[in-house]
Amino acid sequence: MLRIQHSADSEPVAHDLCTVLELLHILWGRSQEAVPSGPLSPSQLRALTVLEGHDGVNLRALGEALGSRPSSVSRLCDRLEAAGFVERLPSPTSRREIEVHLSRRGRALLADVRTYRGRETQAVLQNMDPAGLAALAEGLQAFRTAAAARIGLPANPGDQRPARTG
């Protein structure tokens, strides 16, 4: 069970969150192979997610968002472009820069991954009591807002979730 701590003592909560994320990685790992659009590595999925929030960034900005070296980002984009998930186009403002855009196929892939992950997550959430589920929802919203601000992304990239009732 997650330990609730005062925000000044976030280390135990961070440890618990890391444990939960490891479980989610296992639970969701199958989605990388199961989506109809094709297999996807974790680094490719991260890049597509960043592009969804910052479509049309240059390779340098994408690398900064991913915390990766420019050469690694370039090779990653080569693979994503070859698979049809991104498009690289000359920047309209600078002839020396290339912008990376999420393609329709890339958007469809993210939707497929989210659908699969949503089904897997829903199966787990159905085993939680209503009070625990409500507390989790509140905590996750706060975490999403803080995490998105830290990495400079919108808090709800690709948010396709249904409206909450009640």
From TrEMBL:
The keyword Transcription regulation applies. It holds the Pfam family MarR_2. Keywords: DNA-binding, Transcription, Transcription regulation. Residues 10-145 form the HTH marR-type domain. It comes from the Bacteria. The keyword Cytoplasm does not apply. InterPro entries: HTH_MarR-typ (IPR000835), MarR/SlyA-like (IPR039422), Tscrpt_reg_MarR-type_CS (IPR023187), WH-like_DNA-bd_sf (IPR036388), WH_DNA-bd_sf (IPR036390). SMART domains: HTH_MARR (SM00347). PANTHER family: REGULATORY PROTEIN MARR, TRANSCRIPTIONAL REGULATOR, MARR FAMILY. This is MarR family winged helix-turn-helix transcriptional regulator. It comes from Streptomyces albidochromogenes.
